[in-house]
Amino acid sequence: MITLVRAFRVAVLLTVGATLAQAQVPGQSRAQPAARLRTALPGYPDPIALDTVANYTEMKAAPGVVFSAALEAFKTLDIPVTVRDSIRGTVGNLGWIKMRQLAGKTMSTSFNCGSGMTGPNADGYRLTIAAVVMIEALPNGNSRVGVALVGSAQDVQGASKDPVACGSSGFTEARIEKLIRAKLTP
Q1: pLDDT digit string (tens) for 116-174?
Q2: Is residue 22 part of a domain?
């Protein structure tokens, strides 16, 4: 049985721990925590935190400039933009359906969804895709940019089958990053 004194000690320790966790480190500015982008795709048992699968790089431009360049990159690749948050620095789409090609290339160029008798499943299955660019301001005035692409596939032939999770090749993420950098170059 927990005594009243022991319960009080636990409450004090939790309060002190929470206060210390929120304490500002000298020399660092205190920014609002970014909202974590998650998406739920068929074939995945749990929602996917996109910041955990993103490839991050530093770009020599302010976040607002990178944000505009990211919008242009998505437009160039014909990726529909449904997330456009300049305050949190996010551009992208948390789930749209596409078949056969992505940004002018076969789906298997961007995704590995296994293969069957006719070749890569990504080229014949219906894919649900999430693509996001996440932009954070750095103290030196530059931006930390993360590009995430995830997908899942569903066979459209014959009997209904369970959707499968797809692995990304990194090809489309690299194209998005390259297009953003090209827009930043004067």
Answers
A1: 998 999 999 999 999 999 999 999 999 999 999 999 999 998 778 899 999 999 999 99
A2: no
Q: Which residue has the tokens 């790089």?
A: 57
User: Mapping DSSP to helix (H, G, I), strand (E, B) and coil, where does residue 122 land?
Assistant: helix
Give 16 or 90, the one with higher predicted confidence. Answer: 90
pLDDT at 3: 56
Which residues does residue 59 pair with via DSSP β-bridges, in sequence order?
A: 143
- CATH code of the domain in which 147 resides: 3.30.530.50
Q: Which helix (H) or strand (E) holds 116?
A: strand 115-116
Residue 25 lies in a domain: no
13 confidence band (pLDDT: 50, 70, 90)? very low
103 found inside a domain? yes
pTM: 0.79
Domains contained in the chain, number: 1
> What is the rounded CA–CA span in Å between residue 94 and residue 149?
9
Q: Is residue 150 part of a domain?
A: yes
Q: What is the DSSP letter of 162?
A: -
46: burial class by Cβ within 10 Å (0-12, 13-18, 19+)? exposed
User: How far, in Å, CA of 70 to CA of 51, rounded?
Assistant: 16
SS3 state at 10: helix
